[in-house]
Amino acid sequence: MVLKVCMIGSGNFASALVINVGDNVKANPETFDPIVNMWVFEEDINGRKLTEIINEEHENVKYLPGIKLPSNVKAVPDVLEAAEGADIYIFCLPHQFVSKSCSVLKSQVKAGAIGISLIKGFQIKDGELILMSEEISNMLNGMPVSVLMGANLATEIAEGKFCESTIGCKSYENGKTFRSLFQTNIFRTQIVEGDRITVEMCGGLKNIIAVGAGFSDGMKMGNNTKAAIIRMGIMEMIEFVKLYEPNTQISTYLESCGVADIMTTAYGGRNRALSEEFAKQYPNNSFEDLEKEMLNGQKLQGPLTAKEVANVIKTKKLEKKFPLFVTINAICEKEIPPQDLLESVQFTTYKFVK
Amino acid sequence: MVLKVCMIGSGNFASALVINVGDNVKANPETFDPIVNMWVFEEDINGRKLTEIINEEHENVKYLPGIKLPSNVKAVPDVLEAAEGADIYIFCLPHQFVSKSCSVLKSQVKAGAIGISLIKGFQIKDGELILMSEEISNMLNGMPVSVLMGANLATEIAEGKFCESTIGCKSYENGKTFRSLFQTNIFRTQIVEGDRITVEMCGGLKNIIAVGAGFSDGMKMGNNTKAAIIRMGIMEMIEFVKLYEPNTQISTYLESCGVADIMTTAYGGRNRALSEEFAKQYPNNSFEDLEKEMLNGQKLQGPLTAKEVANVIKTKKLEKKFPLFVTINAICEKEIPPQDLLESVQFTTYKFVK
Lengths: 354, 354
What we know:
Two copies of one chain form a homodimer. By secondary structure, chain A is of the alpha/beta class. Chain A has two domains: about 5-195, NAD(P)-binding Rossmann-like Domain (Rossmann fold); about 200-345, N-(1-d-carboxylethyl)-l-norvaline Dehydrogenase, domain 2, CATH 1.10.1040.10. Chain A is built from 15 helices and twelve strands. An eight-stranded mixed beta sheet of chain A has the order 5-2-1-6-7-10-11-12, sandwiched between helices. In chain A, strands 3-4 form a two-stranded antiparallel ribbon. In chain A, helix 8 crosses helix 13 (about 300-315), helix 8 (about 195-220) crosses helix 14 (about 325-330) and helix 11 packs across helix 12. The longest helix of chain A is centred in the middle third of the chain and has 23 residues, at about 195-220. The first copy, chain A, starts with a strand and ends in a 9-residue tail after the last helix. The mean pLDDT of chain A is about 95. At the A-B interface, helix 9 and helix 10 of A face helix 9 and helix 10 of B.
């Protein structure tokens, strides 16, 4: 029996990674069904359906223009049809669509099917944090859901530039299956067994660090200070992960999902860039306005995650343990000026305790 | 009995940090002698002696112009006189002067005196690596020598910008003494007990990583790849440290001496900048020429350290464990083109094993 794979999502990152998946299933016909269905939220592109364009021209002209997709990737506008008979689900869609898609998929999930989430960030329900992998698993009858995170800017992947990625999973067997789907000569994956929660949480939390790094850039605080703020952010990241995974492994932070992703986000990337502008123009601008000006109205992940995380910290009354995260949120909310960033952490001693 | 402190060195970094030391001894007269002698290699500055200028105008016009030194810092041109009666030695001078200074100081070192090295990098003798702290200790009758490392660009420190730093020491007591000398509201030190070797080696090895990062910038390999190369550099750094400190603590790499210093060096700094140029202009330029063009002939640390480290690796026949370090050196030596950088590590799996 070969395994049928479906991609739930068709944005920038989904389209970049479905290339790897399409090529890999084709190359391994003894393991995988040669067709990869990709659920595409139907859109009208100059009078033509997006699915039709993808299936005829093998290009996602809306979300990854200029890059050819493998011809064995089939765009399907109906999510149930896309996932029909699937043994392996790859989730790569915005948060807000997860719940709706899963409630539709629930009825037809095969026993024994496995999933992987490529979605960065988390949700908050009733003051508690819910990881996307767990949300999906809960909605899909307890399906085991792994995660893939790392320094993986979609455009660079699609352009064929080398990168590393981290697969976090409970079972190494599942990790190996996902590696055989995603790994190529220029997309190298490392499997982290038993520390999935850390891998997944890094993907969300790093955006808060990037906001702090952007503030320090906006205030021209220099290289030493910026590095110190990022480092303190890593220390708070570890402490925050510990709330959900007391056995978090410090070595996981040295994987691509950790330091590598933090560096790309805190030295490049739009969370950093908009936060720099925010601090420069303070108080004459807000993230909402900057999102309109610089992102065509797309929401920035960092301030959102900072808010969610600050809420959890306040609910748990742990403000003293997370001065940087709390302060970054307060600055985003304009409760305090960016100039107060340093003061919040200046005399804090961060120490990693096993 | 109060403790007498001397600074052996008067360059950019020594001059920036002697400000902290001068202010701290003045503020703690019950612990420290109020005068800090600073050994200054005598130079003629437009017909005036540098020591005279420092002592009269409290400014190191040659190595830290525009910044006032505390008036209790006394420039002394003779190293023996500068260190007379010293209980605490701070070493902050170029490698090549260490041996000579120590051979002079040897005769007069007090029993019970302690030292700290701020010198980044190491020496190679007979194919073996010698840490500066150990070289100093060996030459000075076994004096215990701690180290201070971190994301500490001297000019930013002198400008009053916030930074963190790491003190590596065998004894926590010594660590605390050094913290009381260096720490200020904007220069925060963290003491790492028992992992001094790791702290010290990070300070040298990070420059090799910066060279790799610069090559990737020069070849426009993108953010994902750059982060991957830096991350793989960190993994090789840990492996290399293990050769000298099998009990290296992974948490030490999350201190300022680790990730923070690596980030500033690999995203800013001259090792990165010159290596970018080297890769761009390859094969039409050499590091020697670039040093002349861009550094007024000053030697760049990265290629030098890469060479020393590659020699150790080759002597120990460990090339397979350190493909990135060996390749970076081979590129610096023009044995292979920068384009071969990726190939060397593309299929390497780095895994942290305790």
